[in-house]
Amino acid sequence: MAKPEFEFGPTEAVEFTNCNPHIEGLSEAILARDDSSDAVTRILKFEPGTDTSPNGALTHDFWEEVYIFEGSFVDQRLKRTFKAGDWATRPPGMEHGPWISENGAKMFEVRYYQKED
């Protein structure tokens, strides 16, 4: 089943839930999910003071495209601050994070898997 069809609606109507693995202050609002491929569109929210260091740097087996639309965070590995208006495209296996967000942040994120030939 592909992601469901959905006409415009307010993102405020989508509930934020804890991420897995759980990090205090980090939550997600799943806007769409394809259960057959686990492709996801979500908003990731960092509350002020969120520190993802307990999870360490991340890698995963899917493509990830992210756009920061509110706030900022510091990438602890790269020692760089990323802020609203910044974006990234991460192929499977690319290391990223951990982050600390002093004042909070929100990101729009799309995750998907590339079909094998």
Work out the strand percent: over 45%
**Secondary-structure element order, as H and E?**
EEEEEEEEE
Give me the number of helical elements. Answer: 0
Distance between the termini: 21 Å
Protein name: ChrR-like cupin domain-containing protein
Pfam family, one: Cupin_7
InterPro entries: ChrR-like_cupin_dom, RmlC-like_jellyroll, RmlC_Cupin_sf
Organism: Glutamicibacter uratoxydans (Arthrobacter uratoxydans)
Characteristic key phrases:
Jelly Rolls, RmlC_Cupin_sf, nine-stranded antiparallel sheet, mainly beta, ChrR-like cupin domain-containing protein, globular
What is the fold's blueprint, element by element?
Elements: E1 17-18, E2 26-34, E3 39-46, E4 50-51, E5 63-75, E6 80-83, E7 87-90, E8 99-101, E9 105-112
Antiparallel strand pairs: 1-2, 2-3, 3-9, 4-8, 5-6, 5-7, 5-8, 5-9
Molecular structure report:
The protein is an all-beta fold and 117 residues long. The protein has one domain: Jelly Rolls (Sandwich), CATH 2.60.120.10. It is built from no helices and 9 strands. Strands 1, 2, 3, 4, 5, 6, 7, 8 and 9 form a 9-stranded antiparallel β-sheet that branches. Strand 5 and strand 6 form a beta hairpin. This is ChrR-like cupin domain-containing protein.
